Each structure stands twice: as structure tokens, then as C-alpha cells.
Amino acid sequence: MSAASVTIVAVVVASLLMVLPAGCAREKTKPRKPVPPGSFGLPFIGQTFRFLRALRTNTGEEWLHQQASTYGPVSRLSLFGCPTAMLAGASGNKFIFASSAVINKKPESMARMIGRRTIRDVEGEDHRRVRAIMMQFLRPDACKRYVASIDDEVQRHLDAEWHGRGTVAVMSSMKDLTFDLMCTVIFTLGRDGEGNAFRQELSTEFRQMVKGITAVPLNLPFTSFSKCLAASQRARRMVAGVIKERRAKLESGQSSPADDVITQMIAEGLPEEEIIDNVMLLMIAAHDTSASLLTFLIRHLDANRDAYDKVVQEQEEIARCKAPGEALTWENLGKMRYTWAAALETLRVVPPIFVINRQTIDDIEFGGYRIPKGWQVLQTTTTTQWDPIIFPDPGRFEPARFENPSAIPPYCFIPFGGGPHICPGNEFARVETLVTMHYIVTRFRWKLAAGCDGSYTRSPHLFPSQGLLIDLEPIVQERNA
Question: Is residue 76 within 8 Å of 37, Cβ to Cβ?
């Protein structure tokens, strides 16, 4: 090679080194960490079918524990066509809640049903703004004001739907109740003839809509998703009508932002679409999450008579101190420690198994591995909530574990999330659960109906066999005046 050729090659190489990204040079001095161990399985399909089969057969816990025991607390797999990092353990839970590079993400079907600008979707200042609005109506001092209204709504429901009936499908009943509680307390929808008709229509649309959250998002005629999307659009129009009415009252001075969460959102200047999205999310939470907790609490108390007897004893002591027709108070709820411990134990024993609602927006490192940008993050709850080191004999229903919740190690029990994204409605859920259980256990005895074995499935949401059918026996009320 001539001297001129050598010179040309040297110049080209030097030029390439100058234009190469700085990151490439760093790669040679600081190799990137490997991606987590595991397997993506077949292209696109991955482990999706096996995972869904495990949910349907109620072996999801075993499936996830097998993944963790095979590959460790950080592993990779492919679910629903996306590369996924599974994080198991308390440190993984903490990392997910604390990392700014892991953001909320929901399936396309859910986004189409609920909207894309809910409190779960926005980040940073937008998230803090919406959260502050919601917390004005969901924080403890606000919930304290709701006790009498919740008391009235619960008694109304039990009088109409339980009294005089031999058998009740608990899940359906609790969905109706929790939906009405949200309508009455948070959105202040009326209880007159027109208001009841509006509630009934809105509830019907929501029942159809929630079926589409886990449907394949194909908006074709005659598909289930298409029917559910149409129900969502009708529900959104109904909510838009409420917003229009509240806006007119606010502008004319007939209402104030403190009246309800919708009026507060209007006063804060949130766009109408964002208000509708957040109302839809709150309704979904009321319709499914709280109803599921109440249903499975009733199921576990039926199967664990010692716990049932302690709940009854606690609630009867409170009932004996009340005059006939006197509503419960905030102070009464403070004495229901064992009942709430039983509710928390229910959430531990029957967790949702997994949460795929987060995605990385940058390469992140955890546990010695690199999780690339754009991967889904699979958060598992059973790996801590069923860990025998943290919760001895985890398959046993033992509410006493939660009589002192501060004794539970951080990020080992996360039914309401954690960090800046902790569920804003956890205190409201506590109040409605305690008031409801007070009137159920002091007014009725129950047992599983013939043919109902108390089993349940996840597809992917929790649902008890036959909606948890129970036979009712009314209790004669004997209260001190």
C-alpha cells in the first residue's frame, strides 16, 4: 500500500471516530449490562397462551413462582406480543413505584373504553394536579363527612336487594352497591325518579363497557369489542351531559367547586375529555375493585368461622351502642379494627396476581440487568404476599396479621399501590367496606348456596363461581334504645 493510500485510510478512520456517537465509545470501555435471563418463546405469541391458561385454571400463582424460581427475581418473557420484564419481590415493587423511567401503560382495549388522559396516564405536574383534585374528595377528612351518606346508601341497598330474598348473587349485588355509592357520594347524582333512571341507565352501560376492557380491540361489526365500545360512547355522552349541567350551575353561582369532584375539575380548568376520562376511571374502580373486595371478604368469612365470629362480635358491640335507625359514625369505624384486618387479609390471600400497566421510557438497570426502553414491566404481588418468610403459612386466612399493619415490611403488601401513584381512593374503600360489612353481619347470616363451591377464576379479573351465590337468613334486630 502506498504512502498516499495509508494517509487516506488514516484520515477516513479518524473521521469516523469523530462522527460516531459518544455512546459507542463508552460501549467499549463500559459494556452494557445483559438483559434479564429467560425466554421470549415463539415470535409474538411468547408465553401469552400459557399465562392465560394458568389464569383460567386458577394456577397463576404457581406459574409466576415457577418463572421466578427458574430465572430469579428479574426475568424476561413475552406477553401479548411485547417483550416483558418480570420483577418479583419487595425491591422490585419499590423500584417500579419509584423509577421515573417506568410509566403507566394500559392495554389498548382499556384505553379505548376509558380514555387516555386519566390520572393513571398522565405524569409529572399533570398527575399532581389531577391527584390533588381527587384527594379533596377522597382524603380521610373528606371521607369522614361521607359516613352518614354511605350508611344511608348501604341500608337502602340491603333493604331493596337482600331483605326478603332467600338467595343473593353477592358479586352482582356489590357492584350495584359500590356504583351507587360513587354516584351518591362523589358525584352527588340525585335520588329522585329522574336521578334513579339516570343511574340505572349509566350502570347498564358500564356493565357492558367493562367487558371490553379485556377484549381483543377489533372494532368490527358484531364483535364483543364493538358492542362494548358503543356502550362506552353512550356512557361518555351521559357524563358529558352532567358536566354541561354542572358547568352551567357553577357559572351562574348556583354551585361551588367544593360541591363535587366534577365541579372541582371544571373550576380547575381541566378539558372536558380529561374530566370524562377520569370520571370513567373512578366509576370503573367503584364498579369492580371495591365490589371484588366485599365479595371475597364475604366468601372468606364463610370459609373461616373463627374469623367470622370475631367480626360479628366486633360489629355487634358497636350495634348495641346505637339507637334504632341511628347511622354509624367515624368514631364507630375506628373501632372496626379486626373487620378491616380481615379485609386486608382478603386482599393478601386473593391478590390480582399481576399488573401489566407499566412501560419503560428509557433503558433502566435493576438487579444487575438492563431492561431496554419500550419493554413492558410485569409486577407480581403474589411473590411477596404469598412469601412464607414474610407471611408464615401464607395459605391460611389469618386477619390477625394486619391488626398491626406497620409490622408488615415495606413494599411487601401493596394492594393500593405505592409511592406517588398510590391509589387515592384507599380511604374511601375502607369506609364503604366497613359500613357495608357492619350491616351485612348484623342483619344476616349466610352460607354458600347449594351448588356454589366458592371457587373463582381470573380471566384476567377475579370472578367467583356463579357470582358467589349465598343463602340468607335474617337476624332479628335487638338494639338498645
Answer: yes
Q: For the chain, which residues score pLDDT lower than 50?
A: 3-27, 478-481
Place of cell 417483550: 83
**3 state DSSP class of 463:** strand
Element (H, E) at 271: none
Q: Specify the residue for cell string 445483559.
A: 34
The rounded distance, in Å, linking the Cα atoms of 134 and 270 is 13
Dihedrals φ, ψ of 369, to 5°? -125, 160
Provide the whole-model pTM.
0.88
| pLDDT value of residue 477 | 62
C-alpha cell at 84: 416483558
| Total number of residues shown for the chain | 481
Dump strand ranges (E) for 5-117.
74-79, 82-87, 102-104
Distances (CA, A) of 94 to 53, 103, 348, 369: 29, 14, 17, 16
Q: What is the pLDDT of residue 55?
A: 78
Query: The C-alpha cell of 327 is what?
Result: 347511622
Q: At what angle do helices 124-138 and 272-284 cross, to 10 degrees?
A: 60
pLDDT tens digits for range 289-337: 899 999 999 999 999 999 999 999 999 999 999 998 899 999 999 999 9
Angle at 297 between CA 293 and CA 302, to 5 degrees: 155
Among residues 471, 467, 478, which one has the least CA distance to residue 445? 471
Report strand pairing: 82-87 vs 376-380: parallel
